[in-house]
Amino acid sequence: MSEKESYLERFNKFYVGFVNPIKQNGRKFYDKITEPKIVKISIYISLATFLPGLILGLVVALTLGPVPYNLFLNYISDLGSIQYTPAPFILDLTCTISAIFIIPLILNLSRLYSSNMVENIDNSKRTHKINKYRRIFGYMGVVFLFVGIFGMFFIGVFSLDRSPNDIHLYFASMAFGGFALGAFFTGLAIVLKKKLFPKAVGYFMVLGPSTASIIFLIAPEPLTQQFLEWIMLFAALSWYYVIVFITLQKLNTMLFFNPNFKW
Questions:
Q1: Which residues, including other chains, have CB under 8 Å from residue 172's CB and lie 6 or more apart?
Q2: Please, what is the Cα angle at 93 between 87 and 97, to 5 degrees?
Q3: Rounded Cα gap, residues 263 and 252, in angstroms
Q4: Quick check: is 160 in a domain?
Q5: Could you give the number of structural domains in the chain?
Q6: What span, in angstroms and rounded, lies between the C-alpha atoms of 232 and 175?
Q7: Going by C-beta distance under 8 Å and a sequence separation of 6 or more, which residues neighbour residue 48?
Q8: What pLDDT does residue 19 have?
Q9: Which domain covers residue 183, as residue numbers?
Q10: Which carries the bigger pLDDT value, residue 35 or residue 116?
């Protein structure tokens, strides 16, 4: 009995001294980074960097590149190679900076599965089951979106010109795969969650990026994988910009911002 008590005491000390501080610091970090002001600023920075940076890099490659850049024959990653553009750093900076400032928006999507975000008091088994799956899909969605962010950041760090052992390819696959799966599960959570986002957005997130990814893998003629990679990118941007617009509209409402959110 004393050994059991001793074990419980050690566990409690470990939890209080190690786990609990991590949990508290995590809660503080979450509260800070999902403040409406922080989320807004990060959204504006991501909007000002990713698509404008991508367009600028494409224009430079098309007009000044030593080798003609072709949307049907070149991958997006080629915009980060000196072989195709005199300014490969544009894509590198675009990916690294945008990845960092997407994080607050992704964390804010946890509202989709917060136990505090309920529309009415309903203890029915059906509602309990829906909330359970919504939380599961929400967690999976955020996890995969972070995988995509991780891959996106390191696409800029390890460009084609700085890619030992083809590591760039792995990070690119991680980015596209993470965002596609993240959109799929987040879309499922949106479909099961009323009021935050229209269900049509959720259905597109479930079907759009996944369909584009499947077509990319199949690459039916006369389409090329290079061109289909651009299609995958714009499929991701389509839902992202819709989510961003709705988030900016709802950030200051009690529906979307809940200071009592439980970590």
A1: 77, 151, 155
A2: 165
A3: 20
A4: yes
A5: 1
A6: 11
A7: none
A8: 57
A9: 21-250
A10: 35
